[in-house]
Specification:
Layout lengths: L5 E3 L2 E3 L3 E3 L21 E3 L16 E4 L2 E4 L8 H12 L5 E6 L4 H11 L6 E5 L3 E2 L5 E2 L4 H14 L4 E4 L7 H10 L4 E4 L3 E4 L1 E2 L4 E2 L5 E5 L4 H14 L4 E3 L6 H10 L3 E4 L2 H4 L3 H15 L14
Helix pairs in contact: 2-3, 3-4, 4-5, 5-6, 6-8
Length: 301
């Protein structure tokens, strides 16, 4: 297994595969289908200081090669999370990455402060949330705002901090450089692309929210391109995600420059995808005489 080991921001993971936030809960719903001990890490669903009820229904729609979701980051809040989810995950031999969301900079900061003493390995800060103070503009679309929230979170964080970037920007490298300047220990990308679906028979939007986040295989080539661009632009490590469903998809991400890879939407139709990806990567290494997976990181130039 040592050949699959990666170091991300000073934390050693037994393999580079984790789950994408919001597609795996905190592992509880999946534990009967997947041996969580096999995963490099479990990345939890986004958690906020207080519970969020999320958007009204309909919140999910299928699309060719993917899905749209407008869940709205529904979560039980930090009290429940610290009491229930972390103790559950501690039973397994896997690292824990906690995804944090907020509507205001202060909400991110207080969540990260609360997590400082929690027995978790890393924090992933979802800056694809609407900034209430700035009239609903997304934190992750304005470089100065992204840098400021990164700095604020880093001041109080005890764990390494990964900033999760939205692809809904003109230049992803500008956002990556901004969070790097703010002190981020790593970046994860990409979050979902904004999409829309219309029911032509009802002449209405399918999602109550009108728009939703597009994920799944349809976005994979965009994600690979953005991972490659960001790898050229910053020195901090990258957690790549977006439509990863096979070992080949994950290897592509690593060759583009990702140190770790998250499996997301694929978990919904095959809960064992993560383990299949890990097995497939191990097979690839054997077939191609790769003794250390890190040799593949950013090998295309």
């Amino acid at each position: 297994m040592a050949g699959m080991e990666v170091n991300f921001a000073g934390v050693t993971f037994k393999n580079p595969i984790t789950t994408a936030s919001g597609t795996f809960g905190s592992g509880m719903e999946f534990a009967e289908y997947v041996d969580l001990n096999r995963l490099g890490a479990v990345t939890t669903k986004g958690v906020a200081v207080v519970p969020w009820s999320g958007n009204r229904t309909i919140r999910v729609a299928e699309t060719p090669s993917g899905m749209l979701n407008a869940i709205g980051l529904q979560n039980p809040g930090l009290d429940t999370f610290l009491e229930r989810d972390i103790p559950f995950l501690k039973k397994f031999d896997t690292k824990i990455i906690v995804n944090v969301c907020g509507h205001l900079e202060e909400e991110y900061v207080s969540a990260v402060e609360r997590l400082a003493d929690a027995d978790v390995d890393m924090l992933e800060i979802n800056i694809s949330c609407p900034n209430v103070k700035a009239g609903g503009i997304t934190f992750g679309t304005v470089p100065e705002v992204a840098e400021a929230v990164t700095k604020a979170v880093k001041k109080v964080a005890r764990q390494p901090v990964i900033m999760k970037l939205t692809p809904n920007v003109t230049d992803i490298t500008e956002m990556a450089r901004a969070v790097e300047a703010g002190g981020a220990d790593g970046v994860s990308l990409i979050n979902t692309l904004t999409g829309m679906k219309i029911d032509v028979n009802r002449r209405k939007f399918v999602l109550a929210n009108k728009t939703g986040g597009l994920s799944g295989p349809a976005i994979h080539p965009v994600a690979v391109r953005m991972v490659y661009q960001v790898a050229q632009a910053v020195k901090i490590p990258i957690l790549g995600m977006g439509g990863v469903a096979t070992a080949e998809d994950a290897l592509e991400m690593m060759m583009a420059g990702a140190t770790m890879v998250a499996v997301g939407t694929a978990n919904f139709h095959d809960p064992s995808t993560t383990v299949k990806v890990i097995d497939g990567m191990e097979d690839y290494m054997k077939r191609n005489n790769v003794s250390d997976i890190t040799e593949l990181i950013g090998c295309v130039q």
